[in-house]
């Protein structure tokens, strides 16, 4: 699957000058929601990502909401697993709402569209572990961590993308006075 082509085709690959949530500047931003709003593309991504973990006997998939709800659903569908999501607890962490089942010892896969630092998927992992789940893998559509993200379990992505990131004071786009967009 040509993931980058899917991002491009759906207008989800933005090129310009972006202020990332991390405070870094980048010439490229992946707006996964623009891709995942198309159910057929979302399902294709879910199947491809699920395939990377088909031997892990996954009971449920979890993702950080809201952006991860669709991804969790399509990957879980591909694996014949349950689709859960974690949401912000208002105290800097995440929790899983009542009604979503985690049985003690359930094997779970955590997924996120784009892993940069892995911070938000880690919060979803902690929420699932707090309910008794056992993490067996982490999946991403795109790994843009440059090989730095590590979770102590297999971490697999459909695409590893090296994207330049600059501290504001060292950003060549700032120097060229390209307008900065917040994402
Ligand atoms: Zn800049």
From TrEMBL:
Residue spans making up a coiled coil are: none
Q: State a single Gene Ontology molecular function.
A: orotate phosphoribosyltransferase activity
Task: Output the InterPro entries linked to this UniProt entry.
Answer: OPRT, Orotate_PRibTrfase_bac, PRTase-like, PRTase_dom
Q: Spell out the reaction equation it catalyses.
A: orotidine 5'-phosphate + diphosphate = orotate + 5-phospho-alpha-D-ribose 1-diphosphate
Residues reported in the UniProt entry to bind orotate:
116, 144
List, for all copies, the residue spans of the domain called Phosphoribosyltransferase.
33-148
Record-annotated residues binding 5-phospho-alpha-D-ribose 1-diphosphate?
21, 88, 91, 112-120
Pfam families in the record: Pribosyltran (PF00156)
Q: Name one GO biological process term.
A: pyrimidine nucleobase biosynthetic process
Top-rank taxon, per record? Bacteria
Q: In which pathway does it act?
A: Pyrimidine metabolism; UMP biosynthesis via de novo pathway; UMP from orotate: step 1/2
**Per its database record, what is this protein's job?**
Catalyzes the transfer of a ribosyl phosphate group from 5-phosphoribose 1-diphosphate to orotate, leading to the formation of orotidine monophosphate (OMP).
| Family in the record | Belongs to the purine/pyrimidine phosphoribosyltransferase family. PyrE subfamily.
What is the protein name given in its UniProt record? Orotate phosphoribosyltransferase
- The organism named in the record is Thermus parvatiensis
Q: What is the lineage of its organism?
A: Bacteria, Thermotogati, Deinococcota, Deinococci, Thermales
């Amino acid at each position: 699957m040509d993931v980058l082509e899917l991002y491009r085709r759906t207008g989800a690959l933005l090129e310009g000058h972006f202020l990332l949530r991390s405070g870094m500047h980048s010439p490229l931003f992946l707006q996964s929601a623009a891709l995942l709003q198309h159910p057929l593309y979302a399902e294709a991504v879910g199947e491809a990502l699920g395939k990377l973990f088909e031997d892990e006997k996954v009971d449920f998939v979890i993702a950080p909401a809201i952006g991860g709800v669709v991804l969790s659903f399509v990957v879980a569908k591909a694996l014949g697993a349950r689709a859960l999501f974690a949401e912000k607890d208002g105290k800097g962490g995440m929790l899983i709402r009542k009604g979503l089942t985690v049985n003690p010892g359930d094997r779970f896969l955590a997924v996120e569209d784009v892993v940069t630092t892995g911070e938000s998927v880690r919060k979803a992992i902690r929420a699932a572990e707090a309910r008794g789940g056992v993490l067996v893998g982490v999946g991403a559509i795109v790994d843009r961590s440059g090989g730095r993200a590590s979770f102590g379990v297999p971490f697999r992505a459909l695409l590893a993308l090296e994207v330049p990131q600059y501290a504001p004071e060292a950003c060549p786009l700032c120097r060229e006075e390209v307008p900065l967009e917040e994402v």
